[in-house]
Amino acid sequence: MYQIVFDADGLIKVHKGGFVGEVAAEYICLLPDEVFREAIVAARQTHTEEAEALEALIQTGKLLRRPPARSAQAERILTMFQALGTGERGALRLFLKEKADFIVTDDRAFLNVLVRNRTPFLTPAELLVRLRRAGRLSREDAESSAERLRPYIRREVYQDLVQRLEDIL
Prior knowledge:
Elements: E1 3-6, H1 8-16, H2 20-26, E2 28-32, H3 33-41, H4 48-59, E3 63-66, H5 72-79, H6 86-98, E4 102-104, H7 108-116, E5 121-122, H8 124-133, H9 139-149, H10 155-167
Parallel strand pairs: 1-2, 1-4, 2-3, 4-5
Helix pairs in contact: 1-3, 3-6, 5-6, 8-9, 8-10, 9-10
């Protein structure tokens, strides 16, 4: 089973898309403490229902919360990219420490860092396509999730996602 590490942006979009449970069934989902604080603790004030749903996934072991991690490799990369947020920094550190397979993010600045450093990643849209291909989601459920993602992703990403989902038998 593949291990994935979420940053806050990736986690929130997968949750808003309504397919976080399917992701947790297909992947080992790791959540750095920094992302927990950014996506869940901070959200308790304004997005109580969302925060509670994500906390329930942690309590049931579907999202595995991990303490802060350090590695020389991560620090070398991060010194070149000071503008990254706490959650992205935590995700990269945990990814390298755990030797995970992918980072899940849709943060453009973070995606640029990952591409430059040849770090494997998945966007929420790509993750949705993979779930559909793996048979974790029906065509109707995948299309519904894509529609729920629509307000949170760029128009061209949404259009590509819809086309890719249509191409899956």
